[in-house]
Amino acid sequence: MTIGFRVLGPVEILDGGRPQGATTAQQRAVLAMLLLDLGRVVPVGRLIAALWATEPPASARNAVRVHVTKLRGLVAADPTVAITTVGEGWRLTCDPDRVDLYRFRDLVERARTGPAAEAGALLRAGLAEWRGPALADATGHWLAGTVVEGLEDERLAATEDRIAFDLRSGAPQAVIPELSVLAAEHPLRERPAQLLMAALHDGGRTAEGLEVFQRTRRHLVEELGIEPGAVLQREHKRLLDGAGGEAKTVAPLPRQLPGDVAAFAGRAGQLAYLDGLLEKPGPLVATVAGIPGAGKTSLAVHWAHRVKDRFPDGQLYLNLRGFEPTGEAVDPADAVLRFLDALEVPADRIPAEADARSALYRSLLADRRMLVVLDNARDEAQVRPLLPGADGCATVVTGRTQLAGLVIHYGAHLLTLDAFDAAESRDLLAGRIGTARVEEEPEAAARIVERCAGLPLSLAMVAARAAVQPDFPLAFLAAELESETGLDAFESPDAAMDLRSVFSWSYRQLTPEAARMFRLLGLHWGPGFAAETAASLAGVPVATATRWLRELRRMQLVAEHAPGRFDLHDLLAAYAAELTEALDSPEDRSAATRRLLDHYLHTARAAERILAPHRSPIRLPDPVPGALVLVPESHAQASAWFEAERPALVNAVDAAYRRGCDRHTWQLARQLATHLRRTGLGSAWLATQRLAVAAADRSGDAQAVALAHHGLAAAQIRFGDHAEAEANLLEALRHFETLDDLDGQANVHSVRCLISEAAGDFTTTLAYAGRSLALFRAAGNRHGQVRALNNVGYSHAELGAHDLAVASFLEALDLSRELGDPDGKATTLDSLGFTYARLGEHAKAIESYRCAAELLDRSGERFRAAAARHRLGDAHLAAGDRE
User: What is the pTM for the complete model shown?
Assistant: First the structure.
């Protein structure tokens, strides 16, 4: 069974060309809605609105579901057709060629873009798909008043194209009757009148053609208050001039698009999105925003060339110069004047008042199908007077701001361009310098792509440099780029291509406060940051920082990828760093960096105290004024903060070390350790602890040296070298003994248990465990005692003294419950499970492991929770429970 569909006439489901339903007007309306949005989800709310314009009944939602269910039954026999539920809506999928509407559109598109000789046959085939008025037997005010009108406009435009083809083919007499009817039925539509005038003139009936003009002009003036448009005026002049030569040539329509982009690459998803917008009814307005250099103009111009044939009345283009070196944006009234001139409106017909000019401009486009590209817009006010209101027109606006006001007033569709990914960047490079050259040196090409940071403008600049040096290897160019700092690699004598200049056009539009915020963000080491982080950098309240960040976001200098979290593109970060170095004093930069480090350090300590309340705290100096300290209220909030800020925190340790901030280096590394250990991020844990040791050794602070060497050893035991860990532990122990720090000494012996345990030397492990227990007791550290008792018990279990092991574990459990220490309890239960498994008491082992795993899951101990579940599986297996 092969199912097809018809909407250009009665709405029908066809089986092998034979109608099969749908059976009611509402059911046909639901089917029409699904077909009009073929392959896309149609929400239930939209279906209800289409069926009941106002006050839908309480049963509306259920009624729609019933209609959909019945439609599913009608198409169920064909597996290539599906109506699927997606959230609160439905999607109909099938080959578009099964639907007469999409066959019609495809044939018309091929006629407009293909060889001229084939246009007539294709247009006739497309129009033959119509079996009467579209959606003829479907119900719903919205369908009849909006969708049908748009579809009828498509049919009329295709009919006009077909008649124009016949006229060009030299058959004026044959089309006159049809055109006469068409012009009478649509007296305000100028193209049928223009075609009828041309046919009458070419058929030797010029006087009648001039009468058509006068009749059409009278309708336009009396009903709309406007004069005929440029095309009709030119046809009138041709008839007045009479036959022969140049006088018969119709003046060209405006074709103002710049040349298409050479070797356009990437943006496939964005192009498809814009293509899809053309299928929606009504006038189209789309805005393309993005960071400077993201290729907004390239995308808009390339797409305009792709679809220009769908706009037979021409294309208008204007660079509004909203962001230019001169800073002089085009005045909207002057912009309208330029478009009126392109439409060949006589100067004496152009009003002096700006609003009247815009009204005339919209009137001229009211019955046309034109594409308008407004490039480099400054703001909504500059764009509004240039927006046509005609259903057949489309407008694409590019700008560095999102122009969100156009969404509110004109239903504009927003499209924001991100940086290219590595594959798109490579494609652009290959398109400019040749695929063979890129494939010959893939590693060098990858280095170039990485240095350009996915910015199309920087890639285009580097590609141009490679193109003028075709004999130079790409490796040479990559090395040259990597040797230059900041934005030096992307300098150009052409201001439109120089990254600093391009970035500066946005920067100069900022208020002084937002400009300072942008500069100080150059001190941040990335990759992302929260509003609170920016507030600490600038030393202002969060509300103030958020207001400035929103200004930067509007100018596309920062991106907000999640509520309250922002990103700064790598090359913009380099530009910001250059600006702060040049414009802010060393004292201001140093103070901002100190506030930033204190923000991270003190917030990390507050979060870590929730995650690991048993851990011995270190004393920190008070944060400097202006450094915002966040205090998470729960374990989940603390974990979420570490997860969100982890990359920046790891980078902060490195940045602090390079800036000589030794105290911040080792203290940040210490506060970060619990999170990195629990999430199993060994390389980051080791790297930050090594920097902590280097900073502590450089500072000469005995406590810092002891704590840092101890922290590095803990990471090395889990993810590194045990021999090196032992050396670091001995260094830490020496300093703790010098400081008479019993707690520190006990922690060292606890960690040494892990080394001897890994070597299978449980006698030594028991000695270390006993020593750490005695020291924790002497220091009064009861949380430490829980862990030491667990180590003592585990050593006894490995040595076969199970009674002693269980006794030690039970003492540890009692103490952990008394202290409210879930981490100590989980660790002890895990060890207790191991002991019960050794004794063959599998039920007790299973229960202990299960409780331990659940507690470890809750505390975020991912590494240890995995190990506990592994042992839980072994216990079930030993008990004979293979499931």
Answer: 0.64
